[in-house]
């Protein structure tokens, strides 16, 4: 899935970030990685941080320039933390992910150097800029983290377009119906009378409050069995006590 | 912002992940980091990977257990990759972020060990489980990446609301803290022993199931008072019965 979508890392300085980016991609189902003039690659640190995503790493295409990397792409988004004198159209992550994921042609999402980002010449190749909002006092989003966020958003697009599966729960994990809840409340009320916690002459709002509480819990079948068991054990205790009065 | 929200890392093995998590938090505006029994901390590698988020790291609280870490929290979400025999309520990232960000009380988002996640005993403290969907063939989401995704989603909530409302509830309608819940569970367990519903020699999973049930209900102060009152009345009944045996 998403074979039409390349993640391009330009001029990456730390090989650890390349490995971590490969892992970030694969965990969300992305596979197409392109490296433009990486400082150090291949490299043991990259492989270590890839941790099982070494196939993404070993299939990575290495290029000398961004323009070479995007030859077959129709739509290219760059990332940039800096403000530019010339404004490119800006996209936020979810919106950008939607356009990338649903694009009918080949597309690329381009990440710049750790410290200096993309050059103006590189941005000239981009149709839009991705803007990831961050803390204005500390906007140092790690490169692989940025890749992770976008891979996650791209997977969200995929998930939102799947027909949602309804998880089939085992019978005892399913919620109980209202008739069962009503019978439980009757049993609870009688038990509270039996242990003299509830005075039927002055019930106040006790049962209403207890209904609200147990409704919030949405008991499943096994939990309801436990609750009913506790009530029965309480009543047995109360009955024995009464008999001996 | 989001001072009511703790990120808790339990039993982290790689100090680099602690540093990267601190950076991931700060870049999205989160500050409250708690470390439960980290393997190695403090550590130069953690500081290096924090890269400017060293204030989050140096302010991190270190605890011996998860239950200590969440004493003042009212709502706790765990993360888990494994399927469990007992199902906790599951939340997806955006939904989970919304609940965390808008919660009127203190809340915690808990991340487990790199390889083994959270133990069942630790999950017993959680009200819900976060589920981050990933590639079924390679679901190895890095710990700091998971923190990054959630910090990003939490910031998204902030951005979408700008002035997030935190509704001020009357005292008796406010949720109770985990210390209060712990005392309730102790009282409940003792009462179930008193009425001979729970055999301390063969407790099975009873208390775990009851914890899940009452955690789902998120009792408020007035509801907790009622529950404790019912337990005390039950114990009185059981005691009178015993005396007359």
Largest interface: A-B, 59 and 58 residues
CATH architecture descriptor text of the largest domain in chain A: 3-Layer(aba) Sandwich
Total of domains of chain A? 2
Going by CATH, the homologous superfamily of the largest domain in chain A would be: SPOUT methyltransferase, trefoil knot domain
Which stretches of chain A are low in confidence, meaning pLDDT under 50 for 5 or more residues running?
A: none
Can you describe this structure in just a few lines?
Chain A is 47% helix and 12% strand. By secondary structure, chain A is an alpha/beta fold.
Question: How would you sum up this structure, described in words?
Answer:
2 copies of one chain form a homodimer. By secondary structure, chain A is an alpha/beta fold. Chain A folds into 2 domains: 5-161, Alpha/beta knot (3-Layer(aba) Sandwich), CATH 3.40.1280; 171-243, Helicase, Ruva Protein, domain 3 (Orthogonal Bundle), CATH 1.10.8. Chain A is 47% helix and 12% strand. The first copy, chain A, contains 10 helices and 7 strands. Chain A has helices at residues 15-27, 44-50, 54-58, 66-69, 93-102, 120-123, 143-161, 178-194, 206-217, 221-243, and strands at 5-10, 32-36, 61-63, 75-79, 90-91, 107-111, 128-130. Chain A has a 7-stranded parallel sheet. In chain A, helix 8 (178-194) packs parallel to helix 10. The termini of chain A are far apart. The model of chain A has no long low-confidence stretch (mean pLDDT 91). At the A-B interface, helix 1, helix 7, helix 9 and helix 10 of A face helix 1, helix 7, helix 9 and helix 10 of B.
